[in-house]
Amino acid sequence: MAHRFPALTAEQKKELSEIAQRIVANGKGILAADESVGTMGNRLQRIKVENTEENRRQFREILFSVDSSINQSIGGVILFHETLYQKDSQGKLFRNILKEKGIVVGIKLDQGGAPLAGTNKETSIQGLDGLSERCAQYKKDGVDFGKWRAVLRIADQCPSSLAIQENANALARYASICQQNGLVPIVEPEVIPDGDHDLEHCQYVTEKVLAAVYKALSDHHVYLEGTLLKPNMVTAGHACTKKYTPEQVAMATVTALHRTVPAAVPGICFLSGGMSEEDATLNLNAINLCPLPKPWKLSFSYGRALQASALDAWGGKAANKKATQEAFMKRALANCQAAKGQYVHTGSSSAASTQSLFTACYTY
Amino acid sequence: MPHSYPALSAEQKKELSDIALRIVAPGKGILAADESVGSMAKRLSQIGVENTEENRRLYRQVLFSADDRVKKCIGGVIFFHETLYQKDDNGVPFVRTIQDKGIVVGIKVDKGVVPLAGTDGETTTQGLDGLSERCAQYKKDGADFAKWRCVLKISERTPSALAILENANVLARYASICQQNGIVPIVEPEILPDGDHDLKRCQYVTEKVLAAVYKALSDHHVYLEGTLLKPNMVTPGHACPIKYTPEEIAMATVTALRRTVPPAVPGVTFLSGGQSEEEASLNLNAINRCPLPRPWALTFSYGRALQASALNAWRGQRDNAGAATEEFIKRAEVNGLAAQGQYEGSGEDGGAAAQSLYIANHAY
């Protein structure tokens, strides 16, 4: 321990830190458009659209070709590998379209879960093999940040010490490797909402998980100023009978974060984890109005909660492009306001925006 | 892990949090007057005074008879066990005098360092045996906070992983026990300034040590909002040939804290560790002017850096008591300003204020 061997030069640190800050500047958040092929299948099935590469391309094209003013609310977009190399109908690469709008391009890097033997169905996440080379290539191809989702669940004997330890360690290895290749790692230790546990229990678990994550990041010499955190909000389990207000969710969430997340972390971008579009926005707003000290930006990295209405509006038909883009833009703006604590609930919401997007034991 | 067994009730948490906030209220810091009998021997021998219980009583009386001017800059006083039960010339217990000024009374509870076998001269700190009963008694006797000092040093092979782990663990046990008894634990993981290492090395070590401390506190279910941290500032080793400005020290210190100390901790009360009175004030001031966001109070818990001039002025003579008390009040007010970034500097050279108070391998 006595000697330090700097993992990054001053220039590398500066680059990482600037990328991270750009993504969460001024209330901006992230569009998580990195659904794997299988997950897109689930989405498309709900709107009765066939899960083909072309359909996936078309939907993403509609989102990415919105007016440039989207860059006021969206600072970064996470892509799936396939999407990084797709083009619009004019042959222009999606990643270039996004970059020209001033949006930072990110890539999902993990390769899904693998079981942890001897546990109650817990998992660790794969994807470390050859990760450095993959990161280097993605960086050349225009990517500036990565995302890796670890999954923990609350149940009997869960999350176990092993699951917490192992997932925290894998996240730290991933983060270290990303930074070596000029990519800002988004660290995502999701405690999924499955179960009937109450708010307090989720808070307790989230605090333990995040403490382990930040110890692991320290042990692995990760430069915190060049990372972002993507945690769950603290909520009751989906099957919990007790209902909580956005203010209660906000207080529990910010309390957990301020007990575990060092101020050096520039931004915390919540996952929406099955919340309806409107709940995801209301909760984020309440979080930003919470009276506790909040030295990091508190923003969003939403998948479903940014795209549900848009998907509904699209229905697989090119003619619905404008309606789709409007639906997406509306959620993006709402969440940007929420990230500044300025969201005013208008009262009218589409069926899709209030519909719970919960899918049991969600995997992308 | 899955079940939480709350360590503290809501009322207990509130009491602890209120005490901590009172100690580090804006512009206030701590007078560390908890020198053991052995440490007082060194102080008194420097001014040619015999180390008797009466002399120690007379000296503390000099400090505690400060008038109401100290109310705005001293939030807490740490006592040694003997002093907690001493009285002034009029038979008024010191504890009462301090409490009547609205200052919180604290008590040193550790029992000094012991060697860690198999290391390069490293130590842990003892004092856990019967600690709960001692805390309960101290609480009855007027103490609302406690202090426990662990010591780490930087050299070729230290601090070792064991030293970091063991000291972090013992600090967390102490903190947990204190809180059970309504006492706010000040957590002090001091990294000594002995050595020729540079500022960066101290920063690196401080970050590793503090990461371990906060992981241990989390593991031991310590309520962070009801604790205070008493760390070293990040400085070069005393024998380092490179000189650094207060601003460099401030930047290194605040960076290290931002990377490790959760915002839930209400205050960081620096130890002075052998810095001269003026240095300790200038550095604290620079820390409070550091442009990085700082979500905790950043103030002082000074022993030597508050008392050196007073001790020198007193020299064991009753006739000098008034002048000595004035010296103490002066340093207290200066540090109260420094804790708000409002100290303009003394402009004086030399005298007791600028003399280095460094003593090799200091043990209280």
Automatic annotation (TrEMBL), chain A:
Domain of life of the source: Eukaryota
Pathway the protein takes part in: Carbohydrate degradation; glycolysis; D-glyceraldehyde 3-phosphate and glycerone phosphate from D-glucose: step 4/4
Pfam families: Glycolytic (PF00274)
Keyword set includes Ion transport: no
Key words, A-Z: Glycolysis, Lyase, Schiff base
Substrates-to-products reaction catalysed: beta-D-fructose 1,6-bisphosphate = D-glyceraldehyde 3-phosphate + dihydroxyacetone phosphate
GO cellular component, one term: centriolar satellite
Gene3D superfamilies, A to Z: Aldolase class I (3.20.20.70)
GO BP term, pick one: fructose catabolic process to hydroxyacetone phosphate and glyceraldehyde-3-phosphate
Residues of the signal peptide: none
Family (UniProt): Belongs to the class I fructose-bisphosphate aldolase family.
Protein's name according to its UniProt entry: Fructose-bisphosphate aldolase
Organism of provenance: Sciurus vulgaris (Eurasian red squirrel)
Source lineage: Eukaryota, Metazoa, Chordata, Craniata, Vertebrata
Record gene name: ALDOB
TrEMBL record, chain B:
E.C. no: 4.1.2.13
Pathway the protein takes part in: Carbohydrate degradation; glycolysis; D-glyceraldehyde 3-phosphate and glycerone phosphate from D-glucose: step 4/4
An annotated GO BP: glycolytic process
Reactions that this protein is recorded to catalyse: beta-D-fructose 1,6-bisphosphate = D-glyceraldehyde 3-phosphate + dihydroxyacetone phosphate
InterPro entries found in the cross-reference section: Aldolase_I_AS, Aldolase_TIM, FBA_I
Keyword Hydrolase: no
SUPFAM superfamilies noted in UniProt: Aldolase
Annotated keywords: Acetylation, Glycolysis, Lyase, Phosphoprotein, Schiff base
Tree of life domain: Eukaryota
GO molecular function, one term: cytoskeletal protein binding
PANTHER family attached to this UniProt entry: FRUCTOSE-BISPHOSPHATE ALDOLASE
Family: Belongs to the class I fructose-bisphosphate aldolase family.
Descriptive protein name: Fructose-bisphosphate aldolase
Organism expressing this protein natively: Sciurus vulgaris (Eurasian red squirrel)
Gene: ALDOC
